Amino acid sequence: MPTDVPLAVLSRALDQAVSVIGGVQESQLGDPTPCPDWDVRRLVAHLVAAPARFVEMGSGGKPDWSTDPPVGLGEAASSFRANADELLATWTSKGEDADTSMADWQTAEVAVHTWDLVRATGQDRDLDPEVAERGMAFLSTGLTDENRGPAFGPEVQVPGDAPVYVRLAAVAGRAP
After folding, report:
1. Which whole number is the average pLDDT over 27-51?
2. Which of 19, 68, 98, 130 would give a disulfide with 45, using CB separation of 3.0 to 4.6 Å?
3. Distance CA 38, CA 109 (A)
4. Is the separation of the CB atoms in 58 and 102 below 8 Å?
5. How far is CA 37 from CA 44, 45, 52, 115, in A?
6. In angstroms, rounded to a whole number, what is the distance separating the alpha carbons of residues 110 and 98?
């Protein structure tokens, strides 16, 4: 596991996403999610593809986030794990002097969609609070009304003492 804090937290975010993806049942694939216009199938496909897209971005590429390659539920968790391992290996190959600030964005992306998937599938899971805290800190400073795009609705107001994943979801425009 990486020792740099952003990378260590990203690693944990990826680990918990694998677990949540593995908990999805075939009968849930058509169910709605907190992501507007996405069912569970689309959300799983998006999550599975995200680490590979992060790697592509890190090498100067411009991945297409508007579509997601289809993935069967049987290979979803193992495909995500392989993509996550490639992402972590890419970070590791950059060495100690790597600018790991983008790891917090990656953590935020994975954390929000992991929460989305937990909500959509009704999984009873304790999610890592530090993952949500780092993701929320990044989104709180990085998301503005001008750059939310279609992926993030307007911030939803929740009590300040709400659980950290509820606050993360609210910052991302989800109605928890």
Report:
1. 94
2. 68
3. 15
4. yes
5. 14, 14, 23, 16
6. 21
